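The authors assume throughout that readers already know how a fold can be written as discrete tokens. In essence, backbone conformation is discretised, so a fold becomes a row of integers matching the chain in length. A single example would do more here than another paragraph of explanation. For illustration, here is how one protein appears when written out as sequence plus structure tokens:

…
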Amino acid sequence: MLLAGRVAVIFGGSGAIGCAVAQVMAREGAHVFLGARNQQKLDQAAGRIRASGGTADTFTIDTIDVLDEQPTTEQVMHLAQKTGGIDVVVNATGFMHDQGKRIDELSLAEFMSGFTPFLTAQFNISKAVTPHMGGERAGAIITIVAPAASMAMPGHLGHIVGCAGIEAFIKALASELGPRNIRVLGVRSHAIVDAVQSGSYTGEIFAAKAQSMGLTVEQWLGGAAQSTMLKRLPTLAQIAEVTTFLASNHASAMTATVVNVTGGATVS
């Protein structure tokens, strides 16, 4: 098993990506701790993992909490005291933001919604977990990020800046934490073909984009697939498997890296 005996903490653990990652990490032997704001969804996700023979627990952390340094720090401290330390952290949090408006109709608040909550959560989670990782107990912090950092397309000003900021943060933090035996990585995914039907919040974002083009969400996703080199979009299972590999010893020489899982939609 790739993660036998590891403690994996997944923020956004009740979401489509978080659930998928948790299931694979549990399958590979990790004791997963799922954190999100909806306890009912967390219980359902943890129940599926236990039913498959995995080990899973939950902790409630509101979306607002990860945007506030003190509650995030306290939650993680209590969790680390319970587990004796943390080996893997996955940031699969997401926030509603604008995609589609151009600068002439975009407000400052809408522009900032594309990066402020994402980078705030990234900072707060990273700062909270690092005291409980590393040293003889090697650690990995992995963030799921959309592909826009290396794209140039109209109507996505805040989103592009936000994705670029997350990727830059990953590299900068890796340089700080490397000497402490903590790796920092990202998984850059394109639109995930089965995420919407699994309840991802991106469904609302994709629906608005599709409607503006006179398309259904399924038609929009089909067009997105055709824009990739492979002519297909990544799946939740593929994102989960890559993330689990990155958390394992097989990837122990990898840090400051954003792995491209976009089907060739981006090349950098």
The longest strand covers residues 182-189. The chain has ten helices and seven strands. Residues 157-177 form the longest helix (21 residues). Residues 8 and 32 are 5 Å apart (CA to CA).
